[in-house]
Amino acid sequence: MSILETKQLSRRFGGLLAVNNVDFSLERGEIVGIIGPNGAGKTTFINVISGIYMPSGGTIAFDGKDITFMPAHLRARLGIGRTFQIIHPLENLNLIQNVMTGFIFCQGKTVRSARVKAAELCESMGLERLERPVGQLTILETKKMEIAHALSTNPRILFLDEVMAGLNTDEMKEMIRTVRKLAKEREMAVGVVEHVMGVINQLTERVVVLDSGEIIASGPYAEVASNQRVIQAYL
To answer: I need a surface site. Which of 70, 73, 101, 201 has the fewest CB within 10 A?
Structure first.
């Protein structure tokens, strides 16, 4: 049974249909790539699933429960996590404090317990010197902190929105290993929005291609990459 399923999911902004009747599913532990040209509706689709936008039509089911119009904070507590394309860390908090927020506000941990849990999580992500201001972090460390922050809500599904952007080849390889490890250890489904096709090829088990808000192809990377409609629209 799918942990997440959308049926005929749509989101309209005035006359623009940004997400158009999307049928999508995620299985437990599965890593799925979500690709397509700029403006295809990838981030809007994640925003609708995570509750930032309410759908204009269709349904969303999480673990068999209808969450179509559930507020974002309740979806996070259920287990829908995500990172953001543009990272906005809490600048007045240091590295570990940024990670602690999910444990406190989503899981209800005390400050002391949240600090212990956040330190363990940061260690598993390869993050060190946890009292540093976020302005002193490298791009890779900032990306890892963003993932750790998402993980602090204890997600069963994690959407990564262009988490590889700005990383060099070695850093991408490290991030691929990290995401695989997290998915396996936590039995967590992962949706990866990405423009780096090498990453999609290496990391994902299945790829969904969006164009103008619609799914135009779905399947293994090799199959999708040879699809003429996908080549014309994106590749």
So the answer is: 73
Would strands 206-211 and 31-35 be described as parallel, antiparallel, or unpaired? parallel
Average pLDDT, the chain: 95
Contact 126, 134 (CB under 8 A): no
Give residue for tokens 């623009």: 16
* C-alpha–C-alpha distance, residues 232 and 61, integer Å: 32
Structure tokens at 217: 């192809």
Closest CA to 152 of 131, 132, 133, 125: 125
Can you tell me the distance from the alpha carbon of 65 to that of 211, in angstroms, rounded to the nearest whole number?
A: 28
The residue among 149, 191, 214, 220 whose CA lies nearest residue 46 is: 191
Beta strand 189-193 with 157-161: parallel, antiparallel or unpaired? parallel
**pTM for the complete prediction?**
0.94
Q: Could you tell me what percent of the chain has a pLDDT over 70? A: 100
* Cα–Cα dist 188/30, whole Å: 7
The rounded distance, in Å, linking the Cα atoms of 196 and 204 is 12
pLDDT at 1 over 90: no
Alpha helices in 134-168 (DSSP H): 139-151
Residue 208's alpha-carbon distances to 25, 91, 197, in angstroms, are 10, 35, 13
